[in-house]
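Pilot study result, target chain (181 residues):
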Amino acid sequence: MKLTALCAAVHEAGHAVALLADPPHPCIDFISIVGLRDGLLGLVEVQTRWQPFMATCSASPEATAQFRQLAYKDVTQHMAGPVAELRWRRLTRAGILIAGRWQRDHCLGSSTLESGSDLDRIRTRLLWAYPDDPHQAFSHAWAETEELVAKHWRAIVLLGRTLRNNGRIGGEELLSMNLLG
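Predicted structure:
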């Protein structure tokens, strides 16, 4: 299936709206579908909540639990782009949930993922945060993300269309759009 500029923009809008809908959200520097490095089709430039050092540092059980929550929030944010893209391609909610099984098996299976891709970032976080059952955590997060995307679909489409028209939206402009009311 060909990825159109509008489809790529809706994908990136899914990520951005998921961040905005889950406070406290990190500062979004910009969203772009133009002028990107290494063949990227789109980018939401933001500091992720979970950082790799969290997986290796010595921390109290309370801090580790907070790190796991941050990892999970990142997972849903990284899933929101693919879920929004599937919805844009007119998959039904049931179809999106079924596609989630394929995404889960691809993400957590033995396949090699493109470094830095949504699925690569999801895999890294789930395998650290939920080593006993990352498949169940993926499925739960996918269903939660599908609900979030459905709830904010109008905002995602509006932002996607604006991004397609502009190519790039700065963080201040994004906030001034007041997408979530």
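One observation from the pilot: The chain is about 65% helix and 5% strand. A full batch analysis is planned for the follow-on phase.
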